[in-house]
């Protein structure tokens, strides 16, 4: 495993970070989820990312149980707040002071820890003044319940505004967690330049495009049984944007590049996002321990410039690059 600094802070995290979205507490049994976490620890992953909304808080509980007994100082545990949790009442959502203060306490209890290393705004709350949100985050840090703060899927302008307030309040906003992959590059033109300017790193989710970049989905064929594209609990909806024959055919053209580098398609996709020097970590999930052992082999891989060019040529115009997509795919109002 290799480690990278998160933003301009002194915090180092594993460049392959284990995330439990769409798995723990929902798609896989708790015993299997725990085995995946143990596999992550065995291969040197020290950073774990979750959120209160994952499986409506169950994912945090599963992760807390799986990490029980580990030396806390050797781990970096991240969680998030914004989406509805619990019974989804009128204040069980968003980035109000009330919801943030109640949510951090719930997350710490479920994770069985006194603090999280990074507490992230899971989306931008259009219905709460940013000043209120950042003051609440600053108070969470001052209370010792979080060491650093971050955001997820914020635009460049939102990131600049939040960072300015965090600086005024004397806390460190050091991370952004966007979707990023060979197929989804919407952060490159605006979010990444703003982040470099501010001393913020990316912790990217879905580096294999919900599994599309593994190459297992073939043009003209039905998705494999049990794959994310057949998961009616949420996976199929997330992956549908990439499930057309043009995209799938172009992804198949990446196989020779992976073969020449001695990598699987998934390893190539993960290594690709890590070539961006503003990316501190690639988030990987797993439904079985073997996936962890395979995906972690992308750590430390350097893809030659010639191969990076071939990847661009193979994918061509199916790549989404429009910077406006960060705002367009964000909630315009609270979901409840």
From TrEMBL:
Q: Is-annotated flag, keyword Cytoplasm? A: no
Tell me which UniProt keywords the record has, alphabetically. Answer: NADP, Oxidoreductase
Indicate yes or no for the key word Metal-binding. no
- Gene3D superfamilies tied to this protein: NADP-dependent oxidoreductase domain (3.20.20.100)
Q: Where is the NADP-dependent oxidoreductase domain?
A: 15-314
Origin, by domain of life? Bacteria
Pfam families, from UniProt? Aldo_ket_red
Which family does this protein fall into?
Belongs to the shaker potassium channel beta subunit family.
- The entry's protein name is Aldo/keto reductase
Give the organism, scientific name. Cellulomonas phragmiteti
